Amino acid sequence: MTAPVVIIGAGPAGIAAAGVLVEAGVRPVLVDEAPRAGGQIFRQPEPDLLRPAKQLYGFDAARATASFSAAASLESEIDYLPNTQVWGAARGMLHVVNADTAFVQPWSSLIIASGAMDRICPVKGWTAPGVYSLGGAQVALKANASLIGRRVLFAGTGPLLYLVAYQYALAGARVVAVLETGRPRRAWRHLPSLMSGKATFVRGLYYMAALRARGIAIHQGVELVEVMRGADEKVAALSFRHGRRDAILSCNALAIGHGLKAESQIADLIGAEFSFDAGQRQWLPRADLDGRSTIPNVYLAGDGMSVRGSDVAELTGRIAASALLVDAGYAAHPRLSRDRRLVERSARFRRGLDKAFVYPHAQAASLPDEVTVCRCEELTAGAIRQAVLASGETEINRIKAFCRVGMGRCQGRICGPVTAELIAATGGVPIESVGRIRAQAPLKPVPLCELAKGLS
C-alpha cells in the first residue's frame, strides 16, 4: 500500500496546498496541532466563544472566512488530524501524538507548512508572571476571548507589535504605550520597498495612526532595561531608555516580541540543508523557488520556509503542492505562473521590512550577565559568555554541550537566537559561523502516558 501525501500545518499555506492536491484527485493527510484549521494568523476561537470575523481578524476577516470555508469544503476529501503534534520525523515517517494515542504516520511526499513563532530578545526580569510574547497575547484574545491584563504595555519590534496593540485597544484593554526598539520612521531610504507592499503597508500605517488617535504613545528607538515586579512578584512596570532619558511605565501585563522566526525543526530532523539569511538574521531550510527542499519529496511552504506573511504563505502553499504534483507526473496547477510572480513581487517588500524592523542584535549581544537567557535551564547571559571563554568554542551546539543552553522544554526555540548573538559577540566571530541549535526529538514535550498508549 502506497503511503499518502502528508501536509504538516493547517494555516493558510497548508490549507492552500491541500486544495491544490484535492483538485488533482490526491487525498492528503493534513496534520494540525490546533483543534481547528486556520493557523496562528486565523486562529479560531473555542466554539462557545464565537465572535464576528471582523472583530477577530480585522482587515483579514474576508480572507479568514474564505480560508475556513475552504477548509470545511475539503473535509470529506482529506484525512484531517486536528490536535495532533509532530514530535519526531524521519524520511518516510512522522512520529505524532494526539489526545488518544501516539502513532507513526507514513508519508510518500511531505509538505511542511509549520509556520513561525515569536522571536524575543530577553530583558532583565522578563520571566516575571504577566509577561507574554506577542503571539501568546494574540492567542489569548483570539482563541480564549480574554486579555492578558487590563493595563498592557507592548514592546519589541516588527509589524506584529502594532497589530496586536491595536487589537487589544479595540478589545477594551488600556494600552499603556508601544515601545519600539527599532527606528522604522528613520528608514526613509527603504520607503519605496515598503510601499511596494501596497495594502499591507497602508494597514501598518493605519494601525499606528489608530493607536495615536486613541492617545496611545508610540516611542521608537527604545532600549528595554528591566521588567519590574510588584509585591505579588508579578510584572508591575517596565523601565526603558529613550535617547538620553530613562523612564518607567507601570502596567499589569507586558507583551514582548522582536519579529518572528521560522519553525524549521521538522525539516532539520529529516535532514534538509539550511543556509543563513542575513536579512531575517536566522537559519532557514534551503528550497528552490517552488518549495522543493534538498530532500527528495519534501516540500516547504509558508512561514516555516521563510517569514513573509499570510498572503505569501497561501501562495507558497499552492506552489509547493503544484511542484509535488509535477514531480509525480501530474499537470501543474493553472495558477502556478501567477502565484510565482506574486511571490517574486513580495520579495522587495520583505527586504524593506527586514531593514525597517531589525532584530536588536546589538542589545542581545550586550545583555547584562545577570539576565536570564535560557529560562528552561535557568542560564544567564554571563553563564553563556563564561562557557565560550572557558572552552574557546564558538559553535552553538558545542556551547550547548558545555552549559546545557537549549536543552529544556523549548529546545532552543526561545533562547537560540539570543544565545547565538552572545556567542558571536563573546567569541568575536560572525553570527553565521555560530550555526544553529540542531533539532532533536521530541521537538516538543510529550507525556509519557501518551507514548505508552502507542506502544500498548
UniProtKB/TrEMBL annotation:
Instruction: List the Pfam families hit by this protein, alphabetically.
Output: Fer2_BFD, Pyr_redox_2
The segment(s) forming the FAD/NAD(P)-binding domain are 5-305
Which UniProt keyword terms apply here? Oxidoreductase
**Where in this chain does the record put each BFD-like [2Fe-2S]-binding domain?**
373-424
The superkingdom of the source organism is Bacteria
**GO MF annotations for this entry?**
oxidoreductase activity
InterPro entries noted in UniProt: BFD-like_2Fe2S-bd_dom, BFD-like_2Fe2S-bd_dom_sf, FAD/NAD-bd_sf, FAD/NAD-binding_dom, Metab_Enz_Cyan_OpOx_G3PDH, Opine_Oxase_asu/HCN_bsu
Q: Which Gene3D superfamilies match?
A: BFD-like [2Fe-2S]-binding domain (1.10.10.1100), FAD/NAD(P)-binding domain (3.50.50.60)
**PANTHER family referenced in this protein's UniProt entry, alphabetically:** ANAEROBIC GLYCEROL-3-PHOSPHATE DEHYDROGENASE SUBUNIT B
Task: Indicate what this protein is called per its UniProt record.
Answer: FAD/NAD(P)-binding oxidoreductase
**Species of origin:** Rhizobium grahamii
Lineage of origin = Bacteria, Pseudomonadati, Pseudomonadota, Alphaproteobacteria, Hyphomicrobiales
